[in-house]
Design goal:
By secondary structure, the protein is an all-alpha fold. The protein has one domain. The chain is 58% helix and 2% strand. Helix 1 packs across helix 11 and helix 4 crosses helix 10. 27% of the residues are buried.
Length: 345
């Protein structure tokens, strides 16, 4: 787990790391609880059924005792607890290096989280957010009342760093030593980005903060993805190539086409929407023309998502269907990788 960045983390579906991309692909293709968000479940509230109401069956998770398919919605509490533990570990590390004045930093307000007014995958959610792409690209405060955006839970303001007075009390030499101890070796500011990333990955001295966050993270889950990334990707390919899945996709596609729209696969629909979004940036340009373009992308997305929903291919129906198909491919994965899994720690 990387330490929090120094800017607010914006909710964004464009996953940047290989591991996150794989997790997102697996989770959303299978439509399991990793794509769930805040809100009451359909079964308990009387509203339409949501993805979180679908009982998940995962032979891999059961065999290894780890939640392989869990995503952001399921791991918020775990991540927050890890951050608190990591900051305590940072303090101990710094004090062991002679910096007794270092205090833990709270990053709670640095991270904007997304609260949704409907449970993910419910009919209500789909009719408002579509597939959750263009409609969750920007916050409500930016898009205004005429467009759809995500609801910001927390203002994302930077907290006061309790260590500022302590750092200011140090001499220049002590301040440099403090920075090295906390942040570790850093690349030269002029180092190209790819070389800087390689330097940070291979440096001998990570610094107390990075080392503490690494030690506090769920290393077993991360190690599993690192060891079996290719094989997990093959599960996605096998599931999507399954005759039952192909027939399911074809039924939905034919039904949607009868409404005058086009829908082949979720991945193809997502790629088309993201390509349209990439042509403009409302954060950089809030002109009326840009807002109109976003409005058109959003209306097209919601219309298609609702058509897919009404044709039996919505998030809940897909989750229930994939949950019947996926386990046999997970069993196949376990059998093919039995020796590696038996020694996996």
């Amino acid at each position: 787990m990387a330490p929090p960045p120094t800017v607010p983390l914006m909710a964004n579906h464009r996953y940047r790391s290989v591991r996150s991309l794989l997790l997102a692909t697996l989770a959303c293709v299978f439509a399991v609880s990793a794509c769930s968000f805040a809100g009451e479940s359909g079964e308990s509230s009387g509203k339409s059924k949501s993805v979180s109401d679908v009982e998940q069956s995962s032979p891999i998770s059961e065999a290894l005792g780890i939640s392989v398919w869990s995503g952001a919605g399921d791991r918020v509490a775990e991540v927050e607890q890890a951050r608190l533990l990591a900051e305590d570990m940072v303090v101990l590390c710094m004090r062991n290096l002679g910096f007794d004045g270092h205090q833990p930093v709270s990053f709670v307000r640095r991270f904007q989280t997304v609260a949704h007014d409907f449970e993910y995958g419910s009919d209500e959610w789909v009719r408002k957010y579509g597939f959750g792409l263009s409609t969750l690209e920007y916050p409500e405060g930016l898009v205004g009342n005429d467009l759809v955006g995500y609801i910001e839970d927390g203002d994302g303001e930077e907290p006061d760093d309790p260590n500022e007075p302590y750092v200011e009390s140090l001499t220049d030499a002590e301040r440099a030593a403090y920075s090295l101890a906390l942040h570790g070796e850093q690349p030269d500011p002029d180092t190209p980005l790819d070389q800087a990333g390689e330097f940070l990955s291979n440096r001998a001295n990570k610094g107390c903060r990075q080392q503490s966050y690494d030690d506090a993270s769920n290393g077993r889950v991360d190690a599993f993805y690192a060891a079996f990334e290719d094989q997990l990707a093959q599960i996605v390919e096998r599931v999507e190539a399954d005759p039952e899945v192909l027939a399911f996709r074809a039924r939905v596609s034919t039904c949607v086409s009868e409404s005058g729209l086009s829908f082949d696969t979720p991945a193809a629909a997502q790629a088309k929407i993201l390509a349209a979004l990439a042509e403009f940036n409302l954060r950089a340009d809030q002109a009326d023309e840009t807002r109109e373009r976003l409005g058109k992308v959003q209306s097209d997305e919601v219309a298609l998502a609702v058509a897919v929903l009404e044709c039996g291919g919505g998030p809940v129906a897909s989750a229930e269907f994939m949950n019947r198909v996926r386990p046999k491919y997970e069993d196949q994965f376990l059998a093919e990788n039995a020796d590696e899994i038996s020694s996996f720690d």
